[in-house]
Task: structure prediction
Amino acid sequence: MARSSAVRALAPLAMLAVVGCQDYNFNPVGHCLVQPGNERVTLSDLSSADILFVVDDSGSMGAEQAKLAANFSAFINNLDASNANRVASGLSPIDFHIAVTTTSVYWNANFASSFAYTCQAGVCRNSAGEALLDTGNQPVTCDRVGSVLPDQANTSGVAGCGSTFDRSYDFTGCAQANGVPIAEVPPAVAGVAAHLAAYPRGDFVSWNGNPRVLHFDKELYGPTGRNRQGFTREQLINFFVGSGTNGGNIVVGTCGSGEEQALQAARLALQKALDGKQKDTYTIAGQPAWDATTRTASATAEWPRPNSKLVIAFVGDEDDCSSPDDASAGIVMRADDTGADACVRDWQSTDPARKKQFPVGELVDYLAGLGRQLGAAFIFPAEQTSCSGTSCTPGLCCQENCPTAGVCTQSINPANYCGAQAPGHRLYDAANQLRNRGADVIAGSVCDGDFATLLNELAEIVKPPAGLTLPTQPAEGQITLLRIAARNGQTRKTCNGPAPAGTTLDAARASYDWWFTAGREVSAPVEVSQNVYINQGTGNCVADAGETYSADYIALNPPSGCTTRDDCQRVLGGRPENWGCYTPPGTGRGTCVCCEAGSTAPECQP
Result:
């Protein structure tokens, strides 16, 4: 019985060995390698990316929004140069389409020492049974009665309602906080908002009649230099950053909700877009669709594009506080210092039954479940003043060029808010979860001096795949090929690589098309891993729309590796003398190889 099992185990393995050699023409180490592997990513026919900026519009964000506007050229120049190279190489330029929303969903607060209103039979009522009324003079509804943290309930444990539950901007409080009359609220404070206008709640925003989706489409790189709406590159940039007396879409203002809901705002924006409910101030043909009197847009936004890559950039100086849109089920803000408030307490709680915030995993699942290539950027409250990728950790950084150098103190003047206001734990968690789900993720500190480097990194993940994640680890780096397959499946180009381990990142970028990295972040080459970085900078390994990146290799077998031939026999069957454990130089883990009778290879010796 044992013998027949061994024979059955060897037969398919021998077949794999033959197929592997025929398919990939590899045998550089002179061994029979038994586990062919492959990973392929086909680019959309549109070669398109849709980008959503989710920007904190609370009172401390004036300096950060200014940095986004001032350094946007780093993002645009990177993509312009890439498209110029693509066109020169006979490839289609990349379409990219930019929209903006804010973190304002609602403001739910009760600053009194106790709750005057609690959730009673679905309505927020006081002890006399009187209903809390909203700005439309209607009763405020609620759906959570108990099982909340102590700071969210009255002394009887009944869930409290915020005495203020707003879904719209109120410049009265915002203006008073900054010591200026309503009429004198400067554009840097008002931004894209208007007094008593509804919070975006995921809606795309723009300054007055600016286009809400900025279409950097293929036509922009044609002979006319204009997109399909008739706008030039310079006009599109000015719509984003502002010019003269005209504001920019990215300067969203600082009169928004102090209950920042970055992750929920992104989900709402995508849900509305996919349902065709996002509006724009221009049709795709360039016809105006903006009513300045009512401040409403009527054209359906052309975003997202079919099969496009989706890239979401989160920018804020406080953590995410996404919770249900409800006066009692949502987080109720109390009279606390920034960074030690109800949002932070909810994150710190270890009792899931009492927590109100949406689980980060739920919001990540939504994004990852859209069936699109996904990228994300997190410019968030980090411990470090400047950091990148996995080196960033949540904390209270202090920007070096604060008005008082190196000193971060809160002030009623928004220009003096230039450090992190609360550690970005939930945003950090979201970045890691998305990275683990295969998304291209970059991270950086909100205290970084100019954002140029971070926006340049953002441009890199907007481009076609920045890398591949292999399903298994190759047995050796030198038996891996990265190639580009045309639409008919035939190889159009074999890319130069991998860059050898020990090569510096700058040297690799100058001379190689691809290499293995230790993690999903861009880094210097390692000997071998499951992470393949594709260097678009050389221009030699750039796939066109509809083409496929294919990584072909011989996988580590078994996946856990081996140290002796006995490991191979135990996992794969057969007799010990049928196997050897070959350890490629620099890899640290062996892979099982076939040993024929009389072989002189060291790993085939007893």
Observations:
- Residues 36-43+466-554 form one domain.
- The chain has three domains: 36-43+466-554, 50-105+169-322+358-462, 565-604.
- The longest strand covers residues 48-55.
